[in-house]
Amino acid sequence: MTEIKPVKIRCDACPVMCFIADGKSGACDRYANQSGNLIRVDPLTIIESTEQKLVPFMKDGSPEDWDGNIIKGDRTFITAVGAGTTYPDYKPAPFIVSQEVDGVDMVTIVTEGIFSYCGVKVKIDTDRHLGDERDIIWVDGEPIGHVMTTEYGSKMLSLGGVEHLTGGSKKEGRVTCDALLRLCNREAVTLTIGDAGHTTDVVVQAGKAPIINGDEEKLMRVGCGSAAIGMFAKQWLNHADDVVVVDDHITGVLSEHQAGKELGVPPTGIKIIGRRSTPGRYFQVAESGTGWGGTDLDDPLKILGPFNPKIATEGMRLLMLSTTGEQSGYFELDANLVPQPADMPDALSVTTKLIAENCEPSVCSVLFMGGAGGSLRAGVTENPVHLTRSVKNSLTHVSCGGADAYVWPGGGITVMVDVLDMPSDSFGYVPTPALVAPIEFTLRVSDYSTLGGHMDEMRPVDTIQTDTLRRVKQNIQGHNPMSRANYRWPNGDKS
Ligand code: SF4
Q1: What whole-number distance in Å separates Cα of residue 187 and Cα of residue 182?
Q2: Dist. CA 478–CA 458, nearest whole Å
Q3: Is the pLDDT of residue 184 over 50?
Q4: How far apart are CA 304 and CA 300, in angstroms?
Q5: What pLDDT sits at residue 2?
Q6: 48 CB neighbour count, 10 Å cutoff
Q7: CA distance 483 to 495
Q8: What per-residue confidence (pLDDT) applies to 57?
Q9: Per-residue pLDDT tens over the stretch 243-261
């Protein structure tokens, strides 16, 4: 008897071109062979507008209350999440959907773009030193990114990008793609920053506090050391003779600072070891680290030189703080003018708590950034550059999973979007390796025609057929990709 081999079908949604047996999925787990039919495994995700703006994303849809009608409620936006990809590039996008919005015929072109040129920018709200600028960031022993310059109260990381995805070893590309995918889908990823001898381990997860060398970070500073002196100077008057706010970047000293001078704080003879910038503001008081104010200090007295005996007197009161108020110490000068630890008066304890109260919770932000290349744009129009111009002219609005995407100035369509604004599990991958991210272009039907769109493929939203569907509520920002405010129609023209 001849054995009948199960029929394999070929997936043509990306250059890998998997042969998939019946009941199996392809290399990326996005497509499967279901009884000889190629199906997209994940459901198409739609966003329903709601009167109630402050509603978070539902994790999953509710199939039991779906009556088969894709239109429900006031308005529906079809995202590219679960929409699928078309390949090669001359083919139209998987869904080109029209609907009338406030008397205007609009069209949305959705596709799951395959991004070889993409990465994430990570903002970590912390004072602690995670690594020097340009330090390499590693996952599973592979380089996947680097440290960028520090912003106000936050460390910035650049992860991924085409050099790591395609320019290194096969393993580097695979590990980079996997780390990006998990970060974009809001999972936790452990990053190792720096080289042997000076590494920091950081667990990063979108919307969560970072875990730095095993300790969960709590607060983001309200200001640098100098700013803290300026903001809280009045609180310390009459309770301390001098205050030092220790900071890896700008350490502040009350008696020398302009704020102290204007409030009549007399000199104390204090000496700070560091590079004086302007009165009461010092740089480089210590090495960077995970101690006080992002320095390597666990003893703040190490930044003090001897007090000037012509000015200082026994019994002078000194308060030392970190920028978040989480670390603090109170000292009084002994007969030799050496600071000795003492019990902090209640009035000063209140001020340290006030600084901590004014800090914000420390959180990790993950922003996907990718370039919609000419091939992706070809799924929208036969003249890809026309789409670019239409976006620049604010005639076409770009969203990712329905979330507002920032489009960078200059050429091309380079977008950046907060993954927390998108539906959960919006991202996928293909083993080329590249990240798969949803992208939607919304514009007037008349403009779509003008830019050479695939008009024959346009279908009214209520004719869209799909086996599976996931409904999510409008995100917490209440962003509406079809709002008139997104468009710069000439003379307010709607047609
Ligand atoms: S990797 Fe995924 S999208 Fe690419 S051909 Fe295979 S199943 Fe299709």
Answers
A1: 5
A2: 27
A3: yes
A4: 8
A5: 58
A6: 17
A7: 15
A8: 39
A9: 999 999 999 999 999 999 9
Report the C-alpha dihedral over residues 304, 309, 311, 317, rounded to 10 degrees: 50
Q: pLDDT-derived band of residue 175, with 50, 70 and 90 as boundaries?
A: very high
Residue 400 contacts residue 120 (beta carbons within 8 Å): no
From 224, 115, 210, select the one nearest 161 (Cα to Cα).
115
Q: Domain map of the chain by residue range?
A: 8-40, 44-117+373-412+433-492, 118-218, 225-361
| CA distance linking residue 426 with residue 181, whole number of Å | 10
User: Do you know the residue count of the chain?
Assistant: 495
Which residue has its alpha carbon closest to ligand 1 atom 5? 17
Cα 431 to ligand 1 centre (Å): 8
Span of 187-201, 395-409, 468-482 with lowest mean pLDDT:
468-482
Tokens of 32: 């499967």
- Contact present, 381 and 452 (Cβ < 8 Å): yes
Q: How far is the centre of ligand 1, averaged over its atoms, from the C-alpha of 380 (Å)? A: 21
Atom of ligand 1 nearest to the CA of 20: 7
Maximum Cα–Cα distance for the chain, whole Å?
107
pLDDT value at 240 more than 70: yes
Residue 52 has pLDDT above 60, yes or no: no
**Count of beta carbons in the 10 Å neighbourhood of residue 148:** 15
Q: What's the CA gap between 190 and 16, in Å, rounded?
A: 29
DSSP string, 169-221: -HHHHHHHHHHHHHHHTT--EEEEES-TTS-EEEEE-TTS--EETTEE--EE-
414-418 and 360-361 strand pairing: unpaired
Residues 6+ apart with CB under 8 A from 285: 246, 247, 251, 272, 273, 274, 295, 303
Residue 50, number of CB atoms within 10 A of its CB: 14
Residue found under tokens 């969960």: 216
User: Tokens at residue 377, please?
Assistant: 């744009």
Number of Cβ within a 10 Å radius of residue 391:
20
Q: How confident is the model at residue 65 (pLDDT cuts 50, 70, 90)?
A: very low
Which residues approach ligand 1 with their CB closer than 6 A?
Answer: 11, 13-14, 16-18, 26-28, 30-31, 430-431
Atom of ligand 1 nearest to the CA of 14: 4
pLDDT digits (tens, 9 = 90+) for 72-112: 445 788 999 999 988 777 789 999 999 998 899 999 999 99
**Assigned token pair, 36:** 């000889």
pTM of the shown model: 0.87
Mutation probe of ligand 1 site: the residue of 19, 28, 85, 432 with most atoms within 8 A of C-beta:
28
pLDDT band for position 63 (cuts 50, 70, 90): very low
What is the rounded average pLDDT for all residues in the chain? 89
Atom of ligand 1 nearest to the CA of 87: 3
Residue 316 confidence (pLDDT) = 97
**Predicted pLDDT of residue 290:** 87
